[in-house]
Amino acid sequence: MSMNRQGRESGVGDGAAAEGFETYTGNRGLQLEEPLIFEKGAPDRFGVDLPAGPKIASRLGGLDRHKPIGLYGLSEPETVRHYTRLSRQNYAIDMGLFPLGSCTMKHNPRLNEKMARLPGFGDIHPLQPVDTVQGALALIHLVGEWLCKLTGMPGVAISPKAGAHGELCGMLAIRAAHDARGESRKLVLVPESAHGTNPATAAFCGYEVVGIPANERGRVDLEALKAKLGPDVAAVMITNPNTCGLFEPDMIEISEAVHAAGAFVYCDGANFNAIVGRVRPGDLGVDAMHINLHKTFSTPHGGGGPGSGPVVFSEALMPFAPLPFVRKTGEHFELVEEEQAHASTDHNESFGRMVAFHGQMGMFVRAAAYMLSHGADGLRQVAEDAVLNANYLLASLKDVMSAPFGDTGPCMHEALFSDDFLGGTGITTLDIAKALIDEGYHPMTMYFPLVVHGAMLVEPTETESKSTLDQFINSLRGLALLAKSGDDRRFKGAPFLAPRRRLDETAAARKPVLSWREPAQRQAAE
Amino acid sequence: MRYLPLTAADRRDMLATIGASSIDDLFSDVPAAARLAGPIAGLSNHMSEMEVERLLTGLSRQNLPASEMPFFVGCGAYKHHVPASVDHLIQRGEFLTSYTPYQPEIAQGTLQVLFEFQTQVARLTGMDVANASMYDGSTATTEAIFMARRITRRTKAIVSAGLHPHYVSAAKTLTRFTEDELVCGEPKLTAGAPGDDLDWILSQLDEQTSCVVVQNPNLFGHVADLTDLAAACHAKGALLVVAFTEVVSLGAIRSPGEMGADIVVGEGQSIGNGLNFGGPYLGLFATRDKYVRQMPGRLCGETVDAEGRRGFVLTLSTREQHIRREKATSNICTNSGLCALAFTIHMTLLGEEGLRRLAALNHARAVQTAERLAQVPGIEVLNGAFFNEFTIRLSKQARPVVRELAERKLLAGVSLGRLYPGVPELENGLVLAATETVSDDDIEALARGFAEVLA
Ligand SMILES: Cc1ncc(COP(=O)(O)O)c(C=O)c1O
Description:
The complex is a heterodimer of chains A (about 525) and B (about 450). Chain A contains 16 helices and 14 strands. Chain A has two domains: about 110-370, Type I PLP-dependent aspartate aminotransferase-like (Major domain) (Aspartate Aminotransferase, domain 2, 3-Layer(aba) Sandwich), CATH 3.40.640; about 375-500, Alpha-Beta Complex (Aspartate Aminotransferase, domain 1), CATH 3.90.1150.10. The radius of gyration of chain A is 26 Å and the shape is globular. By secondary structure, chain A is of the alpha/beta class. In chain A, α4 runs antiparallel to α12 (about 360-395) and α7 packs parallel to α8 (about 195-205). Chain B folds into two domains: about 65-80 and about 350-455, Alpha-Beta Complex (Aspartate Aminotransferase, domain 1), CATH 3.90.1150.10; about 85-345, Aspartate Aminotransferase, domain 2 (3-Layer(aba) Sandwich), CATH 3.40.640. A seven-stranded mixed β-sheet of chain B has the order 1-7-6-5-4-2-3, with helices on both faces. In chain B, strands 10-11-13-12 form a four-stranded antiparallel β-sheet. In chain B, a hairpin with a 5-residue loop joins β8 and β9. Chain B is globular, with a radius of gyration of 25 Å. Chains A and B meet through α3, α4, α5, α6 and α7 of A and α1, α2, α3, α4 and α5 of B. Pyridoxal-5'-phosphate (PLP) binds near residues 162, 164, 270 and 292 of chain A.
């Protein structure tokens, strides 16, 4: 027990005393339990009043749905309370640091939300005549122009719905380009540190994935890569900065070697936040790169999307880019869809459409607000502060944690640690992550990238203040030292202070319960 | 810059801690040839909130919003009234600014919502299980074709002409480099049942067929009984994939599950989500229990915590890219979480009774519109059975008519010439949707507009 500034005793509190009694409700003060809507609601309860419609004779062709659907409703006050109570069981950036490596959880400006909800953006239909949506096309064009200039690439595909969809877009263009040359290359080289979506995407496009090892400095092993290049290699999928949070210093040589072998360079741009405004991927020889607008350009992650993954292309791949796209002629904006594409010179070999309509307009508006707010100068500062914050964390933690590449120079926007420092304690990366929850933080990314044992990938982003970082460093240092001392009480079984203790994921997978069943149905099934 | 908390002094102190003399030191791995000396040319510098708002509001005013005029546009995206509480709740920071629930102990809010969402979708579609969302209806449809291939180990998919042409195009693109073979129907404006090609599908169905993909109601609004088709598919060992673009229809029409579907996919935008010029939308994906391990996408499941309390986690992730890498069922990662939340909240506000009333009101408005338009010289209503969308044939090409009506501030629907460029038989076709947002006055204005333009 320590003393607070007023001289009274204070401290984290004695868990046992706090746990000492059970409440009748199961609630614990502000921590409120909440049943499912199916346990609270009723089929005939609702929170929407609808006007009476005209009397008509049904024209459903006798296919009326008679049997109960099994939906449960709530009135408006109950609905608002239900979802408000549920929301309070979530951690979020609005509440604190969210250092989830590779995910770029930065502040989501509310101006962006306001702009996306303007009726002229939020309430227009994708198939309205193009003359009635000139402002929307202008906005998409503006976002595309910023992305091209920021990346130094000549063209952009707007329609991909998230990062993985962008990867697919880029790899389809590469496949189409090889096809157009009459080549059927079969292999795609992917570093072992790559995100799972990279090999999954390559496989989706019919390619066989060949791993390339990292060198002892956590970078692509240039010689190993060169050795694997050959006439059967279609592309290299490389992440730069890579998933160890390091810039690939040989990137230009890599691109040259790949091009010399007749292959293309796909760059996973998930980590663009580290270099935006300081480095243009186009200058590194990249042929295609997706940009997660829900990372670098701050569109909110929303608990699992929506995202947006536009892809920038080099001259060589532009003709193969997907439909639709926006073209400006004079002051008029055209949405180039199926019919005009054949006639166009720059897109005559388009691989076609990947998705209905024209992409994530709601995200484009938010990204535009973000880009305009920062401007070219502010975006450069974003990269600098993101990298500064990560290096500050790395420098402040590497003496007590193990930073496998900490001695190879500065990191980019994220700091990578391994579980070496936990050797012999029986405490794992998972335990450290869960103990951070008790400290009031969202944990870092765990066990990714795979090239480091027990990886902990910490990405603070530029929107965190120094004092926030200092508090986090203090907390993580404390936990690291405690763990190394062999005291595992704060770790094993953590979190102790979250709305739930550790959840049994094995049981969930062994006997999956994926939807609610009425108690009678459940019993019958058992 | 208002979003960046570091001060000049902070930056100096932090560089000192790191042992770097300047920020440039931290970018020393970047090849010299690729280092930019200053801000990128040709882009504006930072702006105040006020300036950004002014600029973007200006652009938004160059568009004609749906709520400002009689509006009958559908074909995959629908204008519905979304209760104010939905948008309020999804903007709570705890939902809006959280990540995919990788740490379940501090993401029970999102996870419980997903469990509620999956249950609602499974029940609406008449299936056992639904996933936690896909990007949209079109990508969900393509994923269903791949899933059917994995289950049946066959590669031929028969695609009905009634499937939204963008969905067909997306599937064609994504199967171009896989072993899948798509056999696609050709749309016809058959009076009574536009776009219906059940007979053609039956003629194509064989022992090589992995699945049949039909949309119900189809692109032309036609509603069909798929029970016999399901039986025919199953007799050949093929799966029936039923797609929909208007989820509200499930409040009025027998569910695909009741008709015998094996996989049900669709667009959920109508519930909880605005038009947003085409995205973000919400892909729905549901199937039978026995196929769950072949499903793409995230799944939320029920479990207990160390103290035996109920909780929810992401589960069966050995199907997914982060574990299985090149052997994953799909490459999808980020999906449509917040759109699923909006859907679930709106669906909770509706409940069973509200959804049925909403569906009935949609149908009533569409029937009213169709009957009124049938009186206009130069218009032939093609549909017999339909829900809230139907197809008309005009006495002239529909595309210029739509443009002319738009100039009169009437958004009359989607011309088939836009969706199927270069198909002369379809050029006079127009698909209209009428939802609960349509008023008597709107219908009258539309009918008068047509009468004038067609005269
Ligand atoms: C390095 C990397 N690549 C690709 C992705 C996939 O992006 P998305 O989730 O938007 O599909 C992610 C994000 O999860 C990532 O971190």
